[in-house]
Amino acid sequence: MADTNTYQAQANELSQKLWAIANELRGQMDASEFKNYILGVIFYRYLSERTEMYMAEILENDGVTYEEAFADDDYRPVVEDWSLSKLGYVIKPENLFRNLIRKITKFENDADKFSVEDFEKAINDLVGSTMGHESNKAFDGLFNDMRLQDVRLGETVADRTDMIGRVMVKVSDIDFDLQDSQFDVLGTAYMILIGLFASDAGKKGGEFFTPAGPSRLCATLASLGLDEAKTVGDCTCGSASMLLEVQKHLTTHKVGHFYGQEQNATTYNLSRMNMIMHGVDWQNFDIYKGDTLKDDKYGDDLKLTVQVCNPPYSLKWSADKKFEDDPRYSGAGKLAPKSAADLAFVEHMIYHMDDSDGRVAVLLPHGVLFRGGAEEAIRKYIIKDLNRLDA
């Protein structure tokens, strides 16, 4: 088994190859936008290979391949049901990633040749397979940022086909085996790419994920002494990196259910992809899109065992008087000021703490320790009245 350094080297190789593709696009499409296409292809490959692994496992004793089972009118509904119940989606054999790659690199004739429209249909078929099923909440809109008809990819279908085909072949060239811990290469490369493209766009990576050191610190503090966690939440979850970090620090690595909320639509999609790519079944997470401060998607009844968070520092918010009646904020008698919503996020997390053993580890700017006015009142409420602050 290869060591961690080997896995990191493979992840870096993937990043470098895909970064080289993005560099070719300068002047045609901003690399910060093109990341959506690259990450979408990586994710589709993962879903495809996960399908193949699962089908090989359940059909082993039947002596048939996935292609043969799907072609059989009696077998097809059965394997579709298996796929939906376990994976949450169906990828038809002709839409498997390796079959799309074959049409790019080893097509038999012009009719067999890959088109970007083949990939678009494959994605639509995948998402469409979840319609009417509970798993749709995890997959709906996941590929919305990968607009395969965008003329910035190319003026013609042939140009767009060439561009996406090159990305797909580059991704297919990377050697990672989902059956062992090399799966982490995919997840690690995914996070590296997010950081690379965030930097290219002139943005800090913190828009997408918390740096590894602070993320580990929060996860360590929040999970201290816990073998497993019934529920883990992050109310500004970004790409879900901190949620997944908590799982690593539990001695059994068992989490009953993950919860998250994210306002940015693109990052919301990334968080769901990241959960699935790290082996979290669609049944075991709920990521919601929305503004946590204004619209609490958790509802009143959800209480969480572990919460971690790195909210946007000193975010401006409305501090509208209507929030004085919000049970998350009403206890202190004061709302966090318009100029800094830091303590409003803390109040949200305290409200959702499990009463028996709820833990919160949150990264905040140092101003929350000494600023006066409403923030002083909220601090006193948290410390004196609720006795919630340990460190």
Total helices: the number is 14
Cα shape? elongated
What is the average per-residue confidence, as pLDDT, rounded to a whole number?
88
Question: How many whole angstroms does the radius of gyration measure?
Answer: 23 Å
Say how many strands there are: 5
Helix content: 40-55%
Largest sheet entry: 5 strands, parallel
Strand content: 5-15%
> What is the number of domains?
2
**What would you say the CATH architecture of the largest domain is?**
Up-down Bundle
If you had to describe this structure to a student in words, what would you say it looks like?
The protein has helices at residues 4-24, 31-59, 66-71, 76-86, 97-105, 116-129, 136-139, 157-173, 183-200, 212-223, 241-249, 265-277, 342-351, 374-385; strands at residues 228-234, 254-262, 285-289, 306-309, 359-362. 47% of the residues lie in helices and 7% in strands. The protein has a five-stranded parallel sheet with strand order 3-2-1-4-5, sandwiched between helices. The protein is elongated and about 75 Å long. Helix 1 (4-24) packs antiparallel against helix 8 (157-173). The two termini are 41 Å apart. The mean pLDDT is 88. It folds into two domains: 4-202, Up-down Bundle (Ferritin), CATH 1.20.1260.30; 210-385, Vaccinia Virus protein VP39 (Rossmann fold, 3-Layer(aba) Sandwich), CATH 3.40.50.
